[in-house]
TrEMBL record:
Name of the protein in its database record: Undecaprenyl-diphosphatase
Keyword line: Membrane, Transmembrane, Transmembrane helix
Organism: Rhizobium lusitanum
SUPFAM superfamilies: Acid phosphatase/Vanadium-dependent haloperoxidase
InterPro entries linked: PAP2/HPO (IPR000326), PAP2/HPO_sf (IPR036938)
Length: 180
């Protein structure tokens, strides 16, 4: 099933120059733009302390998720779908393992953190962007759909860990916000 859905999403790649250009732009610039979205929230005029705490939580979940992915990769060294002839690649080759998707982990960690902090509108925007970025990785041929599922799971795990240990209005929280 994973291979079938992956092939179907990737089958659209190369059929329309404009669609390819848009999806390639999303896959290359989507995650940095989502990070920029979080950074810009720092200067939010409404509920500034809470939003700043949420921004830090996003950053921590983002980094923790990517770190946890590196541990998973030590045990699961999955080849990319284009290496096995499942997809055709329309961007440059990747050098690391396919599972879990770093893009899905990083972007969904941001979305889940915003949701966990009660910033629902921002979380919905981030969730839609994260989904589009993640699917773009299958479209361009670098991931299986199950790699995205693994990335979403890692994002949930990293967000849950950050929520458990990084609490708002603690001495540590106030110190971090004062430094930044």
């Amino acid at each position: 099933m994973d291979e079938i859905v992956t092939r179907w999403i990737n089958s659209w790649a190369g059929s329309n120059y404009i669609l390819d250009a848009v999806v390639i732009a999303v896959t290359q610039f989507g995650a940095p733009l989502l990070v920029l979205f979080v950074v810009l929230q720092w200067w939010s005029g409404k509920d500034r302390d809470h939003v700043r705490h949420a921004c830090i939580a996003c950053g921590l979940a983002f980094l923790l998720g990517l770190g946890l992915n590196q541990i998973v990769i030590l045990f699961i060294d999955r080849l990319r779908p284009y290496e096995l002839g499942v997809t055709h690649l329309i961007i440059g080759r990747s050098t690391d393992a396919s599972f879990p998707s770093d893009h899905a982990t990083a972007t969904f960690a941001i979305a889940f953190s915003l949701l966990a902090e009660g910033l629902r509108r921002r979380a919905i925007v981030a969730m839609m962007v994260a989904l589009f970025i993640s699917l773009s990785r299958v479209y361009v041929g670098t991931h299986y759909v199950s790699d995205l599922v693994g990335g979403v799971f890692m994002a949930l795990l990293s967000t849950a860990l950050v929520q458990a240990f990084y609490r708002e209005d603690t001495k540590f929280d106030r110190m971090v916000k004062s430094i930044l």
